Amino acid sequence: MSAVTAHGFAVEALPGWEIRIFRRPAAGEVAAAPADGPPAPPGETTHPVVHCSTVPMPTDIGDFGSSGVERLGPDDAFVVVFDYGPGSVGKPLFARKGMPRVLETADFDPNMLQRTVLGQAGYQAFFTESGRACCLYVVLGAYGNRRRVVPRVNALLASLTITPPDRSTGAPVPPATVLAALEADPDHTRFVRMLVVAGLAGSCTGPGPITVFAPTDVALARVPDVGAIEADLERAARTVRAHLVAAAVDLATVTPASPLTVTTIDGFTTTCTTDGTTPRFAGIALDPVRIPAGNGGVHPLDGLRAVPA
């Protein structure tokens, strides 16, 4: 059974559950994936959140279920794990070690709801696991059906894992722009030169989001006429534009049965596909590991997308 994984959380995709793991980007930050949603207002701190529901969740659902728990039926449940961030680790509220994974029917109380909905009941616990200070919040659609629904919640909780945050002192801070990310990567010196000479550096330094499918130096060295492309500024510009997408591209959504159509900044569409092993952009193999930047990201590409001469 596959798991939904993001931001240091993983939950098995059990039948009957819809799962979303996200962190809204802070003001001025570009989301790592569309599921993370729009940026928060300036000055607001954002946190990783796990949402698991037996009913479809609206796109505007609040961190603790506002605008979503009202949809629960009598046999439904909604589960939240909210990470309060490193500043909360060690505080008395989070003294409990480990997330509760076996709940009892007696643990639920109509008075434990963040927002009271007639007939529903809630459970809440604060804890620390894997060096992360979190809250577990569970809503049952009907207090009277808790004996039937709580076992389903426990099965879900048993599959949920929490990994430690990356606190390695040598971890680099993501560059502010995609251009800076490319300039810092020794595998993309030739594409950066092409991008700058073509006058398109500004496309990679704006507010974004911008995703660059960037041919590596090794890939460009295999292109027979790359020298002619670089010498022709108009052709170089067309070639570079064919590799820039003014959107955050989430390759996690691409499956063999569900390719992703993207539009490059020259206005033409192409597809991201996969055979289940190798993801591709316009038929060219790419590295699924995204190089992050403050206004988007880079996917190294193992070739050059052909454009008319």
Can you walk me through this structure?
With 309 residues, the protein is an alpha+beta fold. The chain has 2 domains: 3-162, no CATH class; 178-301, FAS1 domain (Roll). The chain is built from 6 helices and 16 strands. It has helices at residues 146-158, 178-184, 189-197, 217-221, 226-231, 233-241, and strands at residues 3-6, 9-12, 18-22, 49-53, 77-83, 121-129, 132-140, 161-162, 210-215, 244-245, 260-263, 269-274, 279-281, 284-285, 291-293, 296-301. The strands form 4 sheets. Strands 3-4-5-7-6 form a 5-stranded antiparallel sheet, with helices on one face. It has a 4-stranded mixed sheet with strand order 10-9-16-15. Strands 11-12-13-14 form a 4-stranded antiparallel sheet, with no helix packed on it. Helix 3 crosses helix 6. The longest helix has 13 residues, at 146-158. It is elongated.
